[in-house]
Design brief:
2-enoyl-CoA Hydratase, Chain A, domain 1; single chain; lipid metabolism; Enoyl-CoA_hydra/iso
């Protein structure tokens, strides 16, 4: 099975797109990011879709960057860095309500993937969200810091990023990292409730929603606003 085939989109009758990541730990490299973006293309091309949900499979939502791949392909690191940041901002400014249904662990880059969604729901019984860069002596550079400070408050950043604590679902709710927790069998239904609840009875124009997200969460790198690329 190709990498692309491990990132599938299911369109439901109620107008939801469920992007399922079925690639083990769902680590991020050039191929997996390209597969995610192709899946997002399919969602945007479906005019009847009203909500996007992403979720993993098994133990992991996403275990972050594929460090082994990056070490083995140093010549592609610049390409990866650009694609990673562009992909995160594409999700931040996606023209539909977006919900991360965090089925398991979400570490470092996987944590960024999750918080780039409008809403997040975790399992109540298992799974951590954390940025462990402090523990492995890696800095979080400017473009990703911008995302952190747009999406999380200082208390959440202190606990989950600076001190790299492994945050459970209930703890993540108290810190404002996620919106709710639920059981594994209700994860998708809770994600749907968050996504459709955001719309209410409103028929929000996709382009206007994207524009409002761009205005509210402006893309910046090292404090300089950058025009949206996706």
């Amino acid at each position: 099975m190709s990498v692309e085939e491990k990132y599938t989109v299911e369109f439901t009758e109620d107008g939801c797109a469920i992007l399922r990541m079925k690639n083990g730990q769902n680590r991020l490299n050039v191929m997996t990011l390209m597969a995610i973006n192709k899946a997002l293309d399919k969602v945007e091309q479906n005019s009847s879709c009203r909500v996007l949900i992403t979720t993993g499979e098994g133990k992991f939502y996403s275990n972050g960057l594929d460090l082994d791949w990056l070490k083995a392909n140093p010549e592609r690191v610049p390409e990866f860095n650009v694609l990673l940041i562009d992909s995160m901002w594409r999700l931040m400014h996606f023209p539909l309500p977006t919900v991360a249904a965090i089925n398991g662990h979400s570490f470092a880059g996987g944590g960024f993937l999750a918080i780039c969604h409008d809403y997040r729901v975790m399992r109540s019984d298992r799974g951590w969200i954390s940025w462990n860069e402090t523990l492995i002596n890696l800095r979080i550079r400017g473009p990703m810091q911008e995302i952190l400070h747009l999406k999380l408050d200082s208390r959440a950043i202190r606990e989950s990023v600076v001190y790299a604590k492994r945050i459970t679902g209930p703890e993540a709710v108290s810190l404002g990292i996620v919106d709710s927790v639920t059981s594994a069998d209700r994860l998708i239904s809770e994600a749907k409730s968050l996504g459709f609840g955001a719309l209410g009875k409103n028929n929000i124009d996709r382009d206007m929603l994207k524009t409002m997200k761009q205005d509210t969460f402006p893309r910046k790198e090292f404090g300089v606003e950058i025009p949206s690329k996706m």
